[in-house]
Specification:
Elements (H helix, E strand, L loop, with lengths): L1 H7 L4 E9 L2 E8 L9 E4 L10 E6 L7 H9 L2 E7 L15 E6 L1 E5 L14 E2 L18 H22 L4 E4 L4 H13 L6 E5 L7 H14 L2 E4 L3 H10 L9 H22 L2 E4 L3 H6 L12 E2 L6 H14 L4 H8 L14 H5 L2 H12 L5 H11 L5 H10 L1 H4 L27
Parallel strand pairs: 3-4, 4-5, 9-10, 9-12, 10-11, 12-13
Antiparallel strand pairs: 1-2, 5-6, 6-7, 7-8
Helix pairs in contact: 3-4, 4-9, 5-10, 6-7, 9-10
Length: about 425
């Protein structure tokens, strides 16, 4: 039917679409001036074009993040609107599209994700549209409380990785597994997406500051998931490197730490080339915003699945997987409760004593990017909620690390906030 309609259209026609209901089609034709021949229906390509006095057909490229489908429904409340959005197969480097489609009639709706659905108004509507309460705890503005929204975060990351693997034509991935939160989440997403577990190559790379707890946790997790588990020590390679550059290996400075991160990344990249695989990055959004990554080390990857996930949400998702997969619950709980550490120098080294608590940092990141708060407002709000954060250090870090974010690997937003929403000139100072 559509092919016959299209073939009958004059040459100046630009776009043709159709509404199908009860077996009949209503053609909607856009000519070169953007005019349509169906006056009873309002065609909209964004939410602001919806008209309450007409039946609307909304066709959008709807970016998917936690709760965005529910937010869309709430925006359409009180209208008569059929909507359809770009689907998962149309996702690209920095976006996953929701694939939502359905109808809203007043305060009730139907919605289905990912697959086309035939809308039949005669069957009635099932779901009341409620105002979404996505992030109920103001102290954790990135962490949804409901398992439904946590599942949605897993789906977003999984569809993003699946799209990239389909594009490359291979399911083989290489992940550096440290036994920490970030690499655990990346590994769990890969496990959720890839059927043949031996296509997942997990490599633990003990170095000069690696602790026994994280190394053991990494090995247990990889074994329980049944992936291709490998261990490659970087100690000899790093010590040789220190000799090559005439560095005293007793001096635990920035070069001492960064040399280990860069050696690990070299291994991951080269093994990926050998295996015809893609290296999956593990660095999260909080680290990217604070610049707590080694440039040319863990700052790099071939695809960074975690770049849209703040640290507080990383922890929540690891614990959510512990609930979803009882057989690995114990090891995931152990990983989630282990103090966060870069483990680049011998002895105890905890990240939150260096950059401040991730709870406070994520709170500040959210209100800097989403709420667009200036320094005075953020300082007052932190005091009001009882969070402590060195704002001098916070603003120095997010400003000075812009050059790293400018050349980060592809990744997708998972919450309403993303690193690409905060862009500065790399050489600006004293802006906060």
């Amino acid at each position: 039917h559509l092919s016959r309609i299209i073939s009958s259209m004059p040459e100046h026609v630009k776009v043709i679409s159709t509404i199908m209901e009860n077996g009949s089609e209503t053609p909607i034709v856009f000519d070169s001036q953007g005019i349509i021949n169906c006056s009873e229906i309002n065609i909209a390509t964004n939410i602001h074009e919806i008209k309450k006095d007409k039946t609307n057909f909304l066709c959008i490229k709807h970016k998917w993040h936690i709760g965005s489908v529910d937010e869309l429904l709430w925006q359409l409340k009180g209208t008569s609107t059929y909507f359809t959005a770009s689907g998962k197969g149309e996702s690209s480097s920095h976006d996953v599209y929701s694939g939502a489609c359905g109808g809203v009639m007043g305060d009730i709706c139907t919605v289905k994700r990912f697959t086309p659905v035939v809308i039949d108004a005669s069957k009635g509507y099932e779901d009341l549209i409620k105002e979404p309460n996505i992030y109920p705890d103001p102290l954790y503005p990135f962490v949804p409380s409901s398992t439904e929204y946590l599942d949605e975060a897993v789906d977003i990351m999984s569809y993003a990785l699946r799209r990239r693997l389909n594009h490359l034509g291979s399911d083989k991935v290489v992940i550096g597994v440290s036994g920490g939160l970030d690499s655990t989440l990346a590994l769990l997403i890969a496990d959720n997406v890839i059927l043949n577990k031996k296509d997942i190559i997990g490599i633990t790379m003990p170095g000069l500051g690696t602790g026994s707890t994280t190394r053991t946790n990494a090995e247990i997790l990889m074994n329980q998931l049944g992936i291709d588990s490998r261990s490659i020590s970087i100690e000899n390679a790093v010590l040789q490197h220190f000799k090559d550059i005439n560095h005293d290996n007793e001096t635990h400075d920035i070069a001492y730490e960064n040399a280990q991160a860069r050696e690990r990344m070299q291994i991951l990249f080269d093994v990926s080339n050998m295996e015809k695989a893609i290296n999956i990055g593990t660095g999260d959004m909080s680290e990217a915003m604070l610049g707590f990554t080694t440039f040319g080390g863990d700052h790099l990857s071939m695809y960074n699945i975690n770049i849209g996930v703040p640290k507080t949400l990383v922890r929540a998702l690891v614990l959510h997987f512990a609930w979803r997969i009882p057989r690995i619950s114990s090891i995931l709980t152990s990983i989630a409760t282990t103090p966060i550490s870069p483990e680049l120098i011998p002895g105890k080294q905890e990240t939150e004593t260096i950059v401040g608590s991730y709870k406070a940092n994520d709170f500040a990141i959210y209100h800097t990017i989403v709420s667009n708060m200036d320094r005075g407002a953020l300082s007052s709000l932190l005091k009001m909620v009882g969070l402590h954060l060195n704002l001098d250090d916070f603003y120095r870090r997010i400003t000075n690390s812009q050059f790293k974010r400018n050349c980060s690997a592809d990744g997708v937003p998972v919450t309403r906030c993303f690193v690409d929403d905060f862009i500065l000139p790399s050489d600006c100072k004293n802006i906060f």
